[in-house]
Fold this protein.
Amino acid sequence: MTQTPEFKGTHLWDRLCWAKENLEPHQSDYRVVYEDSVDECCRILVPDPNWMACALAGGILPEVWVYHELAKDEAQPDFVKHTRGYLLHDTEPVEAMTEEQAIEYLILKDCPQHVVETWNEGNRPTMVICKKEQLPQTREWRNAWRISDELAA
Amino acid sequence: MAGKIIADTLEHSTAGSIATNYVVNGVEKCWVNFNGTGTVAIRDSLSVSGLVDGGAGNYTVNYSSAAANTNYTARHGSNQYHSLVTNGSKATSSSAVYAANPSHTLVDTLEIDYGFLGDLA
């Protein structure tokens, strides 16, 4: 297995370029299905194979709270440009994760915060982690897809 | 990192020279190629954490390394009639990209490419 160099302080993009050259992509079978709005069809989060390789290797990706801090900055009404990008590069990278831990990280990074916070508060879950084989194999009526009771179970 | 070269200019023996800031600023900071049909899957990418399948012809690309601001230039294409990125759909950490048919209806597409040029955070 390729050993990740000591990357703290290295620009995140440089780390990702290193990973692209040195790590084997990992196609995950996991998918995250969530409902962002009652008026829209469900959304499906697909993990990137190169990103998943970084997560499994460890020492490359920043802590997930870094993305949340940048999102807070961007939400400010006077936001023009990120001034705390150094958080991405200078924060201690996260250690190697299992695939399941990586999916949890990805949910925290890329799913809307209101979904993450309230997915289990209603009378049925609005977010489900499943295997891709559990999704419909054709995209017929894709814009009407909802989380089924079968998938939620 | 090992192997660092610091140079302001690259010079070719016959083809002339180019300032390295052209290279630094002109490189795509993120790119992805994916299949937007069936079970949506990413074929290859750089600096992408994942993709959101938001419905027929409606996808969101999430970046690993965020852009400095939303003034970056997005490049996109698909094997449908056209693809598009709208102003409101761009954030520093993601962008929505759509594929549409000649009637401008959003439709799934077998091959879709997306990338951006701009400054990183």
In short: DSSP finds seven helices and three strands in chain A. Chain A touches chain B through 47 residues (CB under 8 Å). Helices of chain A lie at 12-22, 49-57, 64-75, 86-90, 99-110, 113-118, 149-152. The first strand of chain A starts at residue 30 and ends at 34.
